[in-house]
Each structure stands twice: as structure tokens, then as C-alpha cells.
Design brief:
Elements (H helix, E strand, L loop, with lengths): L4 H9 L8 H14 L4 H13 L3 H13 L4 H14 L3 H14 L4 H13 L3 H14 L5 H12 L6 H15 L4 H13 L3 H14 L4 H13 L3 H16 L3 H4 L2 H21 L10
């Protein structure tokens, strides 16, 4: 699982990312630092902004300044842990976060950050345990926690398919069946695990509740083709194309719908190739 630096930078910045241009925000905090008699919290804020700007050295220096001015030690440790993770030092991130979690064992962000560090350290079981602890400690867990836990469980040797799928089903129970990312991830895991009948059943359940059927018809066609049920795959593919054709032009022209139509046609083409009669070749000498 690759962590995206943009996501990490935004997490480091926290709420400050929601207001104005980053550079302007940094300048504003810097002005406030020069006027403050106790700038520890401001150094913390600027450290997050520097990290969101990928200015790693400046962020690290501000965490040092914040600590020297007795800013919130938990916030400093969390910021450093995220910074170490973002700069590709997951072992050091774990060491920093271990100390924080010894003091605050139910700190959700620290647990999630250490889980991501453990993924980078090829410790999927440890990562899954941390995601589970974060989910338990959260009043309303983020969908990403369930997704990343499932990914970690699927990355163990051997893959823990049942536990991974249960992770996503837990998320759907807690957050609601309308969280499409969890539905799609569960479907993908069923397919990776080779449980095509279960995948088809999941598609049927999801499509029954969906406002529009096109994407689920395409997925059904693809999974039926994987299962070798070519006639049914072709029927689902044609139904998908018919549903797409009935859409208003403004929707049919969107990139997502064009891609969906392409997938449907590719599946139909593959199925047709599978079912086409083979030419007779006379091998008699």
C-alpha cells in the first residue's frame, strides 16, 4: 500500500488547510509568532503548514521550536510521527508514536499513523491491529480505516480474506450501506479471493439499492465472464450498454461513463471471442 504524500501533508496541516492559500497562511502564522509572547502553539500550526507544502526541514525545525516552548507534547509527537512517515522513515515514526501511545493508548490519529508506518515496514498484522484499535477508539471512524485494515489483512501470508471482508462489512454496518467505496472494496476482495458466486451476490444486493444500474451491470458482466458464464455475461453487458444509451447526453459524455461503456464493450468482445466457433483444421496427412 503506497501512501500518498498529498494526503499525509493535508493530515499534518489539519484544519489550517481549509483556509486560503498555503503560502499566505504560513506568512500569517509567522507574523503572529513575532507578536506572541508564547508562540509554542503557533509553531505547531506552522509546522503542519510547512509539511503540507512538503517543506520537511522547515516543519521539523518548527516542531523543535514548539517543543522548546512547551507546546502540547502529544501534538508535537504526533506531528513528528506523521512527518517521519511522510519522509520515508517508518521505523523512526513507530518509535516516536510508541512513546506517544504509551501515554495515550487510545489516541486515534497516533494509532492510524503507526498502522500506516507498519504497512510500510511490511508488518500487515501489526497494522491491522492498530487500525482495529483506532476504529474501536473512534466515535465515528473514517471509511479509510476499514479500507486500510482490509488491505492489511489481505496482505498477510496467507491472505486473511475472511477477516478482510469482515472489516469492510463492519464499516458498512457502522457507517451505512451507502458508502460505495466500502461496497466496491468488498467486491474486489471477493474477486481476488476467487469467490465469484459471493461477488455476484454482493453485486445483486448493491445494485438493488443503487439509484442507477449501469456500473453494477458492467461489474456483473465482468464477473460472469471470469466465471466462464459467457451467455449471462453477454446478456449483462448488453443490458449495461442499453442502460447507458438511455442516459441523457450530458451524462453519457462524462469521462466516467465513457470508461464504463468501454469496459462493457471490451467484456462483450472477450466473451464473443470465447464463444466463437473454432475453425476446423484437418490434420489428416
Amino acid at each position: 500500500m503506497k501512501l500518498k504524500l498529498l494526503v499525509i501533508g493535508m493530515a499534518l496541516a489539519g484544519p489550517a488547510m481549509a483556509h486560503g492559500d498555503l503560502h499566505e497562511r504560513i506568512e500569517d502564522v509567522t507574523r503572529r509568532i513575532t507578536r506572541s509572547a508564547d508562540p509554542g502553539a503557533l509553531y505547531l500550526e506552522r509546522a503542519g503548514l510547512h509539511a503540507a507544502h512538503y517543506a520537511w526541514a522547515e516543519a521539523a525545525a518548527d516542531y523543535d521550536r514548539a517543543e522548546a516552548r512547551q507546546a502540547d507534547p502529544v501534538a508535537v509527537a504526533l506531528g513528528r510521527g506523521k512527518l517521519l512517515l511522510a519522509t520515508g522513515r517508518p521505523a523512526e515514526a513507530c518509535t516516536t508514536l510508541n512513546r506517544l501511545l504509551a501515554r495515550e493508548p487510545h489516541h486515534v490519529e497516533a494509532l492510524v499513523t503507526r498502522a500506516r508506518a507498519r504497512v510500510m515496514l511490511s508488518d500487515p498484522s501489526g497494522a491491522a491491529a492498530d487500525f482495529s484499535a483506532a476504529i474501536t477508539a473512534s466515535t465515528r471512524p473514517e471509511p479509510e480505516y476499514f479500507l486500510e485494515r482490509a488491505s492489511a489483512l489481505a496482505a498477510t501470508t496467507p491472505p486473511q480474506w475472511d477477516a478482510a471482508i469482515r472489516s469492510l462489512e463492519d464499516g458498512l454496518r457502522q457507517l451505512g450501506t451507502g458508502v460505495v467505496t466500502l461496497q466496491l472494496a468488498a467486491l474486489d476482495l471477493e474477486i481476488k479471493a476467487g469467490r465469484l458466486d459471493a461477488a455476484l451476490a454482493r453485486i445483486e444486493t448493491a445494485s438493488a439499492a443503487a439509484p442507477r444500474p449501469e456500473s453494477w451491470l458492467v461489474r456483473r458482466s465482468e464477473v460472469l465472464a471470469m466465471a466462464g458464464r459467457n451467455d449471462e455475461a453477454a446478456e449483462a453487458g448488453r443490458a449495461a450498454l442499453a442502460a447507458i444509451t438511455r442516459l441523457p447526453a450530458r451524462l453519457r459524455r462524462t469521462r466516467a461513463m465513457v470508461d464504463l461503456e468501454t469496459r462493457a464493450r471490451q467484456t462483450l468482445k472477450a466473451v464473443a471471442a470465447e464463444t466463437a466457433p473454432r475453425p476446423f483444421v484437418n490434420t489428416t496427412p
